Here is the input.
Amino acid sequence: EVLVRACDLRFVSIPIMVGHYEQDPIAGPESLIDRELLEGDLRERHSLGLYAGPRGTATVVLRRPNAAESMRCSMSGAIVTGLGSYDVPLNAPDLTESVRAGVLRYLLQVVDVLGKADREVSLATLLIGYNSSVNLSIGASVEALVQGVVDANARFQQTTRLNIRVGRLEIVELYLDTAITAVYALRQLSQTLGPQAETTGTRLVCRTELERHDSARPRLFDDRAMSYWPRLIVTDADRRDDLCPPACFQPDCPPGCRDDPCKDSDEDADQDLPGHPRAPVADRLRYLYVGARARAESVVQQRQPGLIETLVKQQIHVKRYQDDIGRMLFQLMVPHDFKDAARQLDRVVLVVDSYTANLPWELMRADDPTGRSDDSKPLALRTAVVRQFASSSFRRGVRQSATRAALVIGNPSVGGFGSAFPRPKGEKRDDPPALVNAQTEAEAIAGTLNGLGYVVTPAIGDEERAIDVLAKLYRQPYRILHVSAHGVFAVRHRDGRLRSGVVLSDGVLITAAEVSAMESVPEIVFLNCCHLGTVDQPIGRGANKLAASVARELIDIGVRCVIVAGWAVDDAMASIFGQTFYAELLLRRRSFGDAVLQARRAVWKADPGDITWGAFQAYGEPGWMAEPRGDGSLGATGDGPSFVSPDELLDALARVRAALSRKTVRQTESSILSQAEEVQQLIDSRALPEWRSLPEVQSALGATWRQLGQLEKAHKAFLAAIQAEGDLGRVPVRDIERLAEVEVLLGDRIARDDATGGSDAEGLSYIELGISRLNRLGQIVSGKVEVEPKTQASDISVSGKVEGESESLSTDSSPERLALIGNAWKT
Here is the structure.
């Protein structure tokens, strides 16, 4: 049996299948399933490196059924099936194969959890292929999903000889327009795929009517790109890191090292020595744009080798932003086919390799060539930009700390640096100056983390010598590592070798080697140091890890999110960036990508001419949240621009109610009050005042206040809803039942709570009023004509109850209404 269900996936009570691309973060619906249904089980497997990605792979998480689920022969869980690489377009046969692999792994897991007894299990799925890349139509996605399940059932029975199969497939879609289209596709499928399925022993029953849940929503505007981060993959077109590692830089090395292995260079060689071969620069760059609604073909752009590199070398120490440089970078670095798309993006993940990571993508300025747009901001201030690194060398087993611990390093001692790193002719170099603003920032960050319940280990101030900082670095695992200090890249040590890293005392640095030695990896690392974002350029095998980029090593060992400075930064502006970033990430609970964007904008607002906003490069999962599970908060629902239609307000309130109904932990009184304040802020800041009188808005508010336990507000809203006249007629009759239920609950609270000053009589009056409404509603909907004596106005009390009226129970009431009446009498 196959059906389409219009539903918020948080209300799905059977295992649900989603697709996942290689090197993709857990985001969108997949993240919602992980957070709301599986309590982080998917992220745990993702962090362990045990996650689906390549086609044919699958990750299954099943929860052992409780007593009620066992009676229904059901369970909850998720199946993540690999969709392969973004570089290879997903077609219908590929999706069928991915679904087949996922279902087979699911059936095997069912055997492990429930045993080998005969059974039919249910499976839900998103519209994989349509929602994930939109490379397929809705009809193609539906057909591939059903075909994959049919094939898996047949293959499993043939191989295992077990009578265990998927007997029910639910295609889940939140938005009604897409769900309705999927039902029409399913109707056609029963005629085309049905006979073919019968050859495998499967009778295909396609439900031709949409099953709609209360949580389904109409699509108010095209927001499909808002939760999706499109990817622009930019790589050296003639180089492959897996065949030609970064240390290979011989000028006669063939493109991509496809023919001959690269020769090792002299161990003590230095790229700055006369006659030594330099690392080749890219002649061509390959661009692949993977968007939310379309896939662009791969574009290879020819470029003048060394042009942009020369510009970067000339400008890397300049702390002021130059508009002309930004415009020139955009024209030179973005192919013509992608320029218009780049101007329209509001978010993007830039996937780079060891060469393209060194280019200043964040500094581009994309002015409108038509002059119609007056937005003069650089691209990274209009678009949320997060980088990801395409690396072929990475730590397979990543261990991360679950404790709320943080290490904050700020302005440590740098005494002895000048002696250890002399000038090229052997002259003594001065020690770097103290970074007062960096120390102030580190102290502020430490205080913020302390206030959020983190155990902070500070290494702040010039009394912190190298041995002290390194001892604290390895003392315990940390979730967050923040460094505000001097950083150097490719500076020659007195031993003749180059080193890159965070400057400490006595000529010691925190280099890539020390980072690689960390057994437990932080989740997020913020390096507020100049030039540590420069990814390692090939400088010879002898330099090894000492001259490699600290940023690259952090990414390779499995740090989830890394922020590094790849350009000269101003200390004061860097302090603003850092404090804003942590405030957005930890206090406002924004995602990593959104927190970075807000930090950039804060620096721009403080000083539009400073370049610090673009000097910081952010690598990681754009949707990652440092505090995904708060204290029951609904999120900053009141944060955003004003709505343009009351339908948007109704949709936002529906989201709030869906989140509340899925709360599985007991909430405290303070958390409930905090959520009520968020709803009130939503109404006050984003809705027009005149909308509050609309009956449909009052109906939605009544339901929301009821779920929040705000009975007085719920009573007032429901009463206003049923009394108002609306042109659209969007107030349901059941609002009268809801009003009566609230009156019963309110009366019980008044009678029991001495603090409110209410009396038993007042509370009883509310309860009787609720019973009266329910009985009268039953009489109204019964269809029977009953003649009653006229009621005088003087017989009506202030609360609305008819004085002296005898209550009679209508036998024509619905079961739900009878249950409400029974509960009211019990109260």
